[in-house]
Amino acid sequence: MASDVTDPAIPQDVLEMFKEAQQRIIDLNQSRLYALEELAEARAKIIDLEERLSQAEKDAFGVTMAVAQEAASLKQEAKREEVEKKVANGASGSPAGGEVAVEQAEQETEVFLSDYDDDDEGGGTPFEAATGVISILYETSWEPAFIHFNSPEQSGWTDSPGMKMKTGELPNHKIFSITASNLEFVLNDGEYEWDKPSFDANYFIGSPGSYILKNGKLEKVR
Known about the structure:
This is Carbohydrate binding module family 25 domain-containing protein. The protein is of the alpha+beta class.
């Protein structure tokens, strides 16, 4: 190696300084490698935590849905008992009173069935799609990169070119996260270049989780 060659014209203290500088460069490179490994581990932990959060939100949604279904069942049973009681009371009285009671019971049954159908249509909050964290790691040479998106939780599409994505551990890694039930999006460089799966289609994520988009391929990793 060039550093091992001793030139009599170079003072010994200068050679020592040169060797120390080389060693510092080696140490710094080693520290950089350790730092990159720690960053990768930290990112893996973040993805794992996001997945746990998403699963917890799904579990909470399942409990909420079960409670809502149980409440609807109890409501149905209570109305049925009320209808049966009125029918029984009408039958024990005069014929005319019985006919009126039966008619009222039929009307209330129709109202109940209407309410039950409305509950099944999913118009209430407990039956809405579960939201969670959607994270995207986008590999691109663009600097910067923008994501133009829409989701049920937004009022509509973002203004073009969209939201600027954050730079990840590597310069070609762009990161974006949002809390939503699903996400439709395209990407661009902020000017004229756009990234879409096809000319007349957009990228679409149907559920919370962590995704990687590379060379037009969108893949869920967690």
